[in-house]
Amino acid sequence: MPDPTVPEPRQMPYAWWTDAVVYQIYPRSFADGNGDGMGDIRGVLDRLPYLAGLGVDAIWLSPFYKSPQADGGYDVADYRQVDPLFGSLADFDAMLQEAHRRGLKVIVDLVPNHTSDEHVWFREALAAAPGSPERNRYMFRDGKDEVPGSGDGKRAPNNWKSVFGGPAWSRLTDADGSPGQWYLHLFDTKQPDLNWENPEVQEEMRSVLRFWLDRGADGFRVDVAHGLVKEAGLPDWEGVAAMVEGTSAPRLESHLPGDAPHAHTDAQEPHRAVSPMYPPSPFFDQDGVHAIYRDWNRVLAEYGGDRMMVAEAWVEPAERLARYVRPDEMQQAFNFDFLLAGWDAERMAEAIDASLAAAASVGAPCTWVLSNHDTVRHATRFGLKDPTTFPKGIGAQDEQPDAALGLARARAATLVALALPGSAYLYQGEELGLPEHTTLPDAARQDPTFFRTQGAEIGRDGCRVPLPWAGDQPGFGFSGTLSADASGPWLPQPGSFGPLAADQQDGEEGSTLELYRAALAFRSSQQLGSGTVEWTDEHEPDSGLLAFRNGDVVVVSNMGFASAPVPDGYAVALSSGPEPAEDRAAMREVPVDCTVYLQRVQ
Question: Where is this chain compositionally biased, Basic and acidic residues type (predicted)?
Fold first, then answer.
């Protein structure tokens, strides 16, 4: 009997990424295949039927490389090895082969801005002298003298701050015990930045690309794509850089207990984005990055033109982001403007218009994303008093969301995203309606941002909690059967995950899992990913109504405070609300916090 999760191959040339739905897998937390409490590649392989049945087109795996895991694998010690924590290269090859058999593309995460401090190159740099070829692979610099001319080099080369909090420079101690040079790390101290002016670095990363392309990888998600090139001279800068939102305007204020004053915004939250960037950052979005991606584009072209790259670039405004997806550079870039719009019709409409226009100006597809491994899950953000806020994690001492309201809005926002032309990215577990773990004990936290900011930023652990697969099993089935020496999932799960487990929602009408399956099937059948957006007469974003036509489908999302009528001549084909199917067809009003797909009555 044919396997329904193995599709028929396409019959014509097709750039698959232009309208693909991509499912992000954070391997540590997706599924544990060997029972040790840690997610792994075998777990991904075991769950491929689930993913194919969900209706996605591709999977993107966050880093699984050999790593000391100081930043969840984004500190790479060897770009060509799978960390034993996750399995082996043979496991990867088996997973890739089976994914392809089921019609799923596989995107791997590339981390080119920095390595781990345990990478062989950095170890060689530590053993070498200042000015050596080994140190020239990284950003080593002499310090500034505390008193000019003293020669003590006690001050960091400049005033840059780490995205994770604290200074962006650390000083070495030489073998004889004396203070040595400083090295740059825009993130954690264990993530030294590479020197992308060095041809050896450029050639090494080309080799890494080819290594995974030769194994059959279909593309790369490029981490910190805007950060590889730094401004010549490394000038001081008074701004603040943050993940996702980009760069904010400065206000001198102490951020950490005992820390030197540095830049913040005037908003309550310290890293709210402003546009345009002010002042321009000397280490993000430098023009020199584009030569790198034109070079990589040529590498991918060696493999038949069916491979892709997607940029994680915290760049504003949309016109700057579009430069990363010009025809000779990357194929996609994450659309953080849409993610940051929150549950607000006016902001979402503005993000849609700006994003579509910017992408069209360079002939690239848009992307739509609501959650990822660096953000508070949108089912939780949308349940806060202000559903447009973007907290840096949520702890037990913070405002707790309205879970039911957040989930209703999350379901509604998902239907908007999946009806837009271009490519959609889903974060693991959002198809289950998973909330953020907002009461995770501090003792369980592992995100370096929590420690580097002394808890001022709660960090990203709450969105990285292992998934629930079976509601009545230990660890909600994340590990299947735990091995004798395993104590449970690597991060504790909240009790609220039990009723949301995949087996509890499977086949249940109105469940979030079934909504995602229906929405993805509808998107495919109506070819919404290759369509266009036309705002309809019902579109009144200042009143909370977002409404557009894509092909034969009208999408109405009610983000206001009163029900909205269904336009005459249309019937509801799909609703984010929990109404039974027989009631949906007869719906004449769009409830608040609900999105509907409408089709003309024949």
Answer: 253-272
